[in-house]
What does this fold into?
Amino acid sequence: TYAGGLVVDKPLTIQGRCRASVAVLSPADGVAFNVAGPAATGSVQLGGLQIRGAGGGLRVAGALGLTGKGLWLREFVGRGVDVVGPTSQATLSQSIVIHGIAAVGAKGELPDAGVIASHGGRVSLNEVRVDKALVVGLVSLGQGSEIRGDGVQVTGGRADAKGLSGEGALVKGGALILRSTRLSGNRDRGAVVHAAGKLTMTGCVVDYNLPNVAQDQGGRGLSVSEAAQVVLRGVRVAGNREVGIIVRGEGSAIDAVGLV
It folds into this structure.
């Protein structure tokens, strides 16, 4: 077990023997790894690590990118993977992001989440499981922000202290592009897309999403509003408690082919 709270501003590789036995602990006032370098070339590469503790998991804010493989982020506080800014990018593969814990007194536009891209940040996920996230599994927030996922599972989203939220994905002004992905068993909505956000899903499943805890309402597969755009290709929407897809507001649209 190693102490986290590390600020990394140059290319670096850390390879653990096994994510079940090598842990990095985040401090209460920070994250385990804060990648903040200005370099436009090279990246920080992390593998075979378990990341948990009293703070957040991974943060990227700068041109020095992050590549993670075989990581296990669990019982972190606030956000598991937090990518901020137009030059920031992270790639995560064959990894697990599970069981986030609420940040006490957290305020502002950025929610607690498993994986979040904001203010133009970009994230790529390949064979990643996001489970029991609090308050949202995947968040793409703000123009230019983007999350791409292939072979991703977003399940078991958990409500906040008021019993609200718990969505699988939130797209607000950003873009979320998913392939071979499942949004299942989350609270309130499998995915909510609004504020001119864009969601593209190919060969995906949105199923068995549940009502929120506080009001026993919701349980929608996809909720689209405020001029959001959704493209669905070969997508199955089934077994959601309230409704499969709801589209509201001027300019909101769904383009669907092969929808079941």
User: Anything to note?
Assistant: The mean pLDDT is 93. The first strand starts at residue 2 and ends at 3.
